[in-house]
Amino acid sequence: MTDAVTRLIAVRHGETAWNRESRIQGHTDIPLNDVGLWQAARVGAAVAQETIHAVYSSDLQRARLTAQAIGRAAGVPVQLDEGLRERHFGELEGLTHDEIHSRWPDQARRWKQRDPAYGPTGGETLTAFYDRCVGNLMRLAHRHLGQTIVVVAHGGVLDCFYRAANGIDLTAPRSWTIGNATINRLLYSPDGLTMIGWADDGHLAATGALDESSDGALAPA
Description:
The structure is a single chain. With 221 residues, the chain is an alpha/beta fold. The chain has one domain: Phosphoglycerate mutase-like (Rossmann fold). α3 links the parallel β2 and β3. α2 runs parallel beside α3, α4 packs across α5 and α6 packs across α7.
């Protein structure tokens, strides 16, 4: 039976300055701050206690640097995958939530209401983003049946994984946390995804972790 499943460890990247400022990052390539680098080292040490067969990461540097810390600790090379990038937020990238509410109240409303067809100018719709994230995770997981892999990505990406594993509609408000550099566990089989653990931040006890609402999503309704 174990050969028919892939054990997935999904990790959100470490903290950035834009997380602290609640600025929308999306595809903008923001580095980790000092706290984020410390978090990356901590999550690397925690994950390396297990046998890891592969490490995949978004190519954006906040995820890549986190993944490289994991890869060094586990002795596994990092493989970059653009399909694991955060949602593209187009003209909204670089803005705070308050700035978006002030400049484009209608866009802010549709975003907060989780309109699946809404996409910022130059960005992705929620539906297209979800299909990209979950489709890529399924593809990578199927490649490693019987093994354990790490996938390092972004808050919005992990939100899609959580919804897919728990059968939660895209329009449902989020009630779960997605902290920087936390450990989240899923199982993949050809029948789909199952969640087995979420938001483990025991290795980050000294700092805690900012929730995903600081990395590309308005606060849940």
